[in-house]
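Q: For a teaching session next week I want to show students how multiple molecules come together into a single three-dimensional assembly. I've collected the sequence lines for a complex. Could you give me the predicted structure tokens for the whole thing so I can convert them for display?
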Amino acid sequence: MNIHEYQAKTLFEKFGVAVPKGAAVQTAKEFEGALAQLDGTHGYMVKSQIHAGGRGKGTFTNGFKGGVKFSATKEKALENAQAMLGNTLVTAQTGEAGRKVQTIYFTEAANLGKRADGRDDEYYLAILLDRATSCPVIVASTEGGMEIEHVAHHTPEKIFKVQVDPAVGLQAFQARQIAFSLGFTGEIFKQCVTLVTKLYQFYWDKDCAMVEVNPLLVTQEGKLLALDAKVSFDDNALFRHPDVVALRDLNEEDAKEIEASKFGLSYIALDGNIACLVNGAGLAMSTMDIIQHFGGSPANFLDVGGGATKDQVTAAFKIILGDANVKGIMVNIFGGIMDCNVIALGIVEAVKETGLKLPLVVRLEGNNVEAGKATLAASGLTIVSGDSMADAAQKIVKLVNNN
Amino acid sequence: MSILVHEKTRLMVQGITGDFGARHARLSLDYGTQLVAGVTPGKGGQVFEHNGFKVPIFNTVAEAAKQTGATVSAIFVPPPFAADAILECFDADLDLAVAITEGIPVRDMVRAKRAMAGRRTRLIGPNCPGLVTPGRGDKSSGGCRIGIAPGYIHKRGNVGVVSRSGTLTYEAVWQLTCRGKGQSTCVGIGGDPVNGTSHLDVIKLFNDDPETDAIIMIGEIGGNAEVEAARWIKEHCKKPVAGFIAGATAPAGRRMGHAGAVIGGAEDTAAAKIKIFEECGISVAATPSDMADALLRIWKG
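A: Of course. Below is the structure for the complete assembly, covering every listed component.
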């Protein structure tokens, strides 16, 4: 689960991680009040809050450029906020449709320090799971403010990593290693050790999937601040963090994906026209792959899970049919846990209930498969049977292309 | 032989009184697996009955192991309590803990994996279908079925199968069985980012197993476990290996059902993994329907 920058920074503050002072609002009439709380000595930042990166370089569909703007005066900040709120921001990560900005976050602009070579004094810090070692890893770099993938590719020597032993947690010497690796001394060094320690505590206590601060910066007044914050949480652990669940913003999620999750279905929309309904994540992924292999284009990932019920299958069909691009459906079930006849009954009911007119190819295999096939055959519906995955994929691609 | 488990392996089920655990305990008993104990804290002394089988239930894993000689546990405990169930297996010095449970918090697994270091117990999973060593009876009955795989699709033989995904494992197994090729052991290592046993761990066991003559390795997008295994195979594996990678059409940055199936960087993609498989001499299946045939192109059985 992802949260907004302003929500992440509120959590940072609770854990003692230093951030620039800010205020988030959802309506234009709150703008002045929010700005009144802030010290504009060095100007203000006006930041669109959406769950996607690349905001600064994004463009609004009304032509306004930049989803994150420095504003020297209160008047300019108001003007920029007016241009952003309620409008749709398109960035490299949002896709063409973009995201509607429903929250504006004003912060005090930092008086950014400079390094000896004249560059901005910006750093990078992140904490995430290292899959190779199954341990948390802290990643730091002197090259802040740019994409870390770019730094890793071109100057890997400028990336520093510390692996944390989960049995004992982050040690003081490791926080010092990070601070030394960034070249800090004196007061900033001490602030960095504290910040890394608090940030790790936040990551661990709140079951984060990833915490990223880019940039982390040093001000001319000698303060270390987390200027941006990107936080995501482990979905599996949300049951023990009701405070985190309360931060979920459904406006940022696909309506069909929300609907699917209500029924315990895992659904992800894609751009193609052949919908698929599959049990098991691996099989669902490879059903998409095989549709493409035979010249079709998958419309979605949909895993009905291990113990799918008739209601879930019906819900899955309705979700699939909510996508206007869909021109055909392929059902691919290999029943390990699940009873193929339950799926068959669900399919028959769903086809009747939705009045399905699109081509439907069903491939069933596994527990109680004969009863499932008999149910489909006895239904009197036009359901094409596939003998194997390849057979089913070829049949649905042909049916869709011929229509 | 086979790897990890065989016909005589004595199994316990943690969570045998829950719907999920009970259902698969019955299927394992029907398959002929030596399911000798159940564990549900607070229900010790009760008996799990099915088709004339009477399986005693214990309060703790240690007690179940001591009283019945069970050396392996299948864990069907709900996610909030599953890591605790895994740690209890380590404490009881079992040979093997197989965690079927899906949805265990990553932090719990990070701690459990750390606690496994230096212990004798191997963990398979979590979020996995379990493992099957097929039997020699009708429809492979009489074998050791741990977890949630359909038993009848198997056939005793000489192909080892390792996969993250349950249904893709069944797909490969069924293709082999339909072509008259049996399996030594089929292992589902699970779709989570932190798991107890990797592709490479299983490949090494297959390489050393005299009954395994050939291997099918199934992987997916995310992480580098498949790549690590492929590089080892190139240098050390004496047996023919076929492979498949799922997720060629998956968009970057989205989790495809499995918590671990997400493209983070360029090396996580299906195309990158397939390229490395080919470089390492693995016969790559173009589609999931082609997994058994990809093996039979390089191995005549």
